Q: What sequence folds into this?
C-alpha cells in the first residue's frame, strides 16, 4: 500500500511517501522537506498571517503534485502547534481545502507525541519488537517527550515551548545578550518543571531539524546525508560546545555554515538551548539522532487503520 503523510509544523512542512506492508515494514519512496514558517507571528499575535496562507499553499500544491505523480493511494495531512494555537485556524483549514482539496487534521499535543514516538522507534523495532525508548521532538511551537516500551507508549508530554516560540519571545537577536539567555533558560526550565529523569536503560532518540543540524555540524558535512546523520550519537559535551560557539555569532555568521539552512539559522540557538536543558532535566548524557518522526508515525498508523478496516 502506497501512502503519503504531510506534517504541517510551526516551522517546517514535511511529506513522506512510503510503501507499507501488512507486517508494518516501511519502504521510503520520497521524503520531502520545506521550511514554511507557518507559525510566524502566531505566538505574538495569535493569528496565521495572510501571506503565510499563500506560502503554505504553494508548498502543499507542490507536495500534492509529487504524491499524485507517485500514485499515492491515500494522503493524510496533519497540523501541530501553530494550528492548535492560531485563532484563525479554521479559516486556514478552509482555504487549503477549497484550493487544494486537502483536509488537514489538527493533532492534539498527546496525539502528536504518540505519533512521533511510533515513527521514531519504527526502524529500531524492525525484527525486534522490544526495548525501552524515549523520543524527543523539538518543534517550532512545542516540544514533545514520549517514553515507551517497544511500540507501546507509556507516557507522553507536550511542552508548550519550541524553537520559533522561544526565539520570538526572548532570543530575538543574534548574538543574544546574557540577560536574554538567562531569561530563555528560566522560561524553558519553567516548562520542564514536571519532567522526571529517564530510567538508565532508556535509549533517547531525537527527531527534527535541531537534532539533524547538530549532527551535520559535528560531522562537518558539506551536503546533507541522511545515511550519516541517522542514528548519529550526540553527547551533552558536543551539544554544549556547539551552543557556546553559536551563541557569540551574528545571524550572517551562523548562515555561513554550510550545514545550517538559511531559514533555520535564526531559531537554531533556541532549539539547542531547549535540547540542552531537557538533557539536563532527564539526566541523560547522549541522544541518538533520527531523521524519522511524526510523518513516519502517521503513515504507519494510517496503514494500520486502512488494513484493518
A:
Amino acid at each position: 500500500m502506497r501512502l503519503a503523510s504531510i506534517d504541517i509544523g510551526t516551522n517546517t512542512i514535511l511529506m513522506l511517501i512510503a510503501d507499507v506492508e501488512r507486517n508494518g515494514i516501511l519502504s521510503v519512496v520520497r521524503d520531502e522537506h520545506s521550511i514554511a514558517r507557518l507559525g510566524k507571528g502566531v505566538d505574538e499575535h495569535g493569528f496565521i498571517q495572510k501571506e503565510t496562507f499563500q506560502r503554505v499553499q504553494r508548498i502543499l500544491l507542490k507536495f500534492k503534485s509529487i504524491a499524485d505523480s507517485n500514485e499515492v493511494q491515500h494522503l493524510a495531512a496533519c497540523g501541530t502547534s501553530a494550528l492548535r494555537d492560531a485563532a484563525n485556524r479554521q479559516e486556514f483549514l478552509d482555504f487549503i481545502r477549497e484550493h487544494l482539496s486537502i483536509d488537514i487534521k489538527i493533532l492534539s499535543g498527546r496525539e502528536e507525541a504518540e505519533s512521533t514516538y511510533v515513527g521514531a522507534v519504527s526502524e529500531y523495532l524492525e525484527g525486534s519488537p522490544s526495548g525501552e525508548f524515549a523520543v524527543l521532538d523539538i518543534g517550532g511551537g512545542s516540544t514533545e517527550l514520549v517514553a515507551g516500551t517497544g511500540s507501546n507508549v507509556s507516557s507522553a508530554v507536550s511542552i508548550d515551548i519550541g524553537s520559533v516560540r522561544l526565539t520570538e519571545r526572548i532570543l530575538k537577536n543574534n548574538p543574544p545578550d546574557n540577560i536574554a539567555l538567562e531569561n530563555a533558560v528560566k522560561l524553558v526550565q519553567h516548562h520542564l518543571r514536571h519532567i522526571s529523569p529517564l530510567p538508565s536503560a532508556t535509549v533517547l532518540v531525537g527527531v527534527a531539524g535541531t537534532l539533524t543540524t547538530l549532527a551535520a555540524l559535528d560531522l562537518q558535512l558539506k551536503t546533507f546525508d541522511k545515511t550519516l546523520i541517522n542514528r548519529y550519537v550526540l553527547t551533552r559535551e558536543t551539544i554544549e560546545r556547539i551552543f557556546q560557539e553559536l551563541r557569540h555569532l551574528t545571524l550572517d555568521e551562523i548562515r555561513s555554515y554550510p550545514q545550517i539552512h538559511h531559514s533555520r539559522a535564526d531559531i537554531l540557538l533556541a532549539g539547542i538551548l531547549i535540547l540542552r536543558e531537557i538533557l539536563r532535566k532527564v539526566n541523560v548524557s547522549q541522544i541518538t539522532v533520527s531523521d524519522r518522526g511524526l510523518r513516519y508515525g502517521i503513515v504507519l498508523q494510517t496503514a494500520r487503520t486502512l488494513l484493518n478496516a
